[in-house]
Every structure is written in C-alpha cells, then in structure tokens.
Automatic annotation (TrEMBL):
NCBIfam families: thiS. This is Sulfur carrier protein ThiS. Pfam families: ThiS. It comes from the Bacteria. InterPro entries: Beta-grasp_dom_sf, Mopterin_synth/thiamin_S_b, Thi_S, ThiS/MoaD-like. Transmembrane segments: none annotated. It comes from Phocaeicola coprocola.
Amino acid sequence: MKVQVNNKEVELTTRNTISALAAQLDLPPQGVAIALNNRMIPRSQWAEQEIQNGDSLVIIKAACGG
C-alpha cells in the first residue's frame, strides 16, 4: 500500500495503522504528532487508526531551541 508522508510516497510494509507506520519509519516514542488527511490523530488512537491506500499523512517532530 502506498501513502504520502510529508509529500513523499511511502510503501507501507507492515499493518495499515498509524502506529505501524511510526514503527516502520523509526519515529521517536515522544515529540511526534501525526495528521491523517489534515486531521490530527491523538497518540492514544494510533494503534487502531487505519490508513488507506493513497492517504496523506503529515509528521511533525518537536524541536528544541529558543
């Protein structure tokens, strides 16, 4: 299944959930937010939120600084 992640095509190789995608992309366990089709998905829902072929996801990583 192919999805768009930050405007780049990604082939999902595992289950079709946000938590599976996060694991596939080696995202850190904290400091990350994910929007699915322009809707923020709470981390508590990542395991059950399914991704469909062609969906668009935006991954935002927190950055330290001042």
